[in-house]
Write a structure and sequence with these properties.
The strands form two sheets. The chain has an eight-stranded mixed beta sheet, sandwiched between helices. The chain has 353 residues and is of the alpha/beta class. α1 links the parallel β1 and β2. The radius of gyration is 21 Å and the shape is globular. The chain contains 13 helices and 13 strands.
């Protein structure tokens, strides 16, 4: 087989296929042609990553390796390789598997959207254990971004409760909630999404509202991927409150980076160590939440979860839980030390862009 290498005139936005049979290359070329995208075909992952592709297409036979930074990965395969393709996708933390030729139309639409629209950054906020305050941290970081002039979307992740609306007191703001979007499939117009969402200044919100939305069993619902992809095109930064536990994991695979909040307790540290290892291919900013227990300061917890440097530290904010419970977060201030900590976390996630 002769290896094709097609280099586009504009090398800033690339769709690169690593490996693949001549049949797979031909099918990918068809989808790229339909999307108006010129692909690059290279033998393996090393050559693909060196090109810093906008979309990295990999086949099921590619060796799984740690990816530097965040990459938009799509696994492509023929029907005979479908089972292996899903296994490869799990290792790359990608929820996108395309079986060719059946999925050629979807791939063309996806590539066309990715190459022609702006690409915002999607950051997931995860609590190592429940009740550690991850929703508050996500909101504070969103406020910090908007204060700096960045239009930001704050999103409720997997949940069956009211989430943001009740915490922020925004139930009466007009706009769509998750239950209005559960039937979305394929692509969603980014500008339509942005104009339909509730907003307070530069901060837009996507909440479950009172009706909630199914969290999914083992995977993020199809509507979630479509909505979050549209959010990338509508906002420079999208912050997703993923909660904690198993429900957060499939959503985390859709993100460009993660913020993990760890309470200074043995159980939280143990859970954090597992999470960091499972998501090693993504940039993860780990934040220790106070108060600090004996022997579990920022240095020690960093060592226990495999981080050589001390972790960022968020002091305990005494009234945060009660303010959230009464829906007053939009109007509540933060103590000086907490403001400085949130600003540091915000600077970190801006580097994920």
């Amino acid at each position: 087989m002769t290896q094709k290498t097609w280099l586009p005139d504009d090398t800033r936005r690339l769709a690169v296929l690593a490996g693949g049979s001549e049949y797979i290359q031909d099918q990918v070329a068809r989808s790229c042609a339909a999307a108006g995208v010129r692909p690059v075909f290279v033998p393996g992952m090393g050559e693909a990553l060196a090109l810093n592709p906008t979309v990295l297409l990999v086949t099921a036979d590619q060796a799984v390796e740690r990816l530097p930074g965040a990459h938009d990965v799509v696994v492509v395969a023929s029907a005979d390789d479908e089972a292996r393709a899903w296994g490869t996708a799990v290792h790359f933390s990608s929820s996108r598997v395309v079986i060719l030729p059946q999925g050629g139309g979807w791939l063309a639409e996806y590539l066309g959207g990715r190459m022609t629209t702006a690409r915002g950054t999607l950051i997931g906020f995860v609590g190592a254990v429940g009740g550690c305050g991850i929703s508050s941290l996500a909101f504070w970081c969103a406020l910090g971004l908007t204060a700096g002039g960045t239009a930001t979307l704050l999103v409720d992740g997997p949940s069956t409760g009211g989430g943001l609306d009740f915490a922020l007191g925004t139930e009466e703001l007009p706009g769509v909630r998750w239950h209005d979007l559960t039937d979305v499939r394929g692509s969603l117009n980014s500008e339509h999404l942005r104009s339909a969402l509730p907003a307070a200044g530069r901060l837009s919100l996507l909440s479950h509202g009172a009706r909630g939305v199914p969290a999914g069993q083992g995977e993020a619902p199809a509507s979630v991927e479509a909505v979050l992809e549209a959010a990338r095109g509508a906002f420079p930064m999208t912050l997703v409150d993923l909660g904690c536990g198993m429900a957060a994991r499939p959503w985390a695979g859709l993100c460009d980076g993660l913020v993990l909040l760890v309470p200074s307790r043995q159980r939280g540290v143990a859970a954090a160590a597992v999470f960091v290892e499972e998501h090693s291919i993504l940039p993860v900013a780990v934040v220790l939440r106070g108060p600090v227990a004996d022997g579990l300061d920022a240095w020690r917890v960093g060592e226990l979860i495999g981080r050589p440097e001390p972790l960022a530290y968020l002091p305990f904010v005494r009234d945060a839980a009660s303010v959230e419970a009464r829906g007053g977060m939009l109007d509540a201030g933060l103590p000086r030390r907490a403001r400085k900590a949130v600003a540091a976390v915000t600077r970190t996630i801006e580097q994920f862009r």
